[in-house]
Amino acid sequence: MRMITVMATKTSVVLIDDLDGETPADTTVSFGLDGRSYEIDLSDNNAAEFRDALSKYVSAGRKSGSTSKGRAAVRHTTTDSIDPAAVRAWAKSQGIDVSPRGRIKSDVVEQFRAAGN
Asked: Are residues 55 and 22 in the same domain?
């Protein structure tokens, strides 16, 4: 009788804190400045420090509408959102050049989704 061995491969993607480049990131913080929107992956500790640093400006400021005229606000939902680290890992495996931080080009995200991810 012949035995067949089946092996599986599991790939894990770990988000790293964008500020220190070493600590695992626990959260993605979105913020805006001068009409631009940003996201940064941070550990819980660095996210708390970031929020503390901005707290005096936030408490003195006022909420405003959209940061730019004529554009609807981008709304992230669980069905619409993607894992940036997974997209970067996939892009790297496909030979697509993607920066290690910041926004991922929409055509790369579309290719990622078209590949069944």
From this structure: yes
Q: Note the pLDDT tens digit of each residue in 23-33.
A: 999 999 999 99
Domain membership of residue 111 as a residue range = 77-117
Taking residue 112's Cβ as centre, other Cβ atoms within 10 Å add up to 22
Buried b (16+ CB within 10 A) or exposed e, 1-29: eeeeeeeeeeeeeebbbbbeeebebeebb
- List the end-to-end C-alpha distance of the chain, in Å, as a whole number: 39
Distance from C-alpha of 44 to C-alpha of 58, rounded to nearest angstrom: 19
Please indicate, yes or no, whether residues 54 and 83 belong to a single structural domain of this protein. no
Give me the residues paired with residue 1 across strands. Answer: none
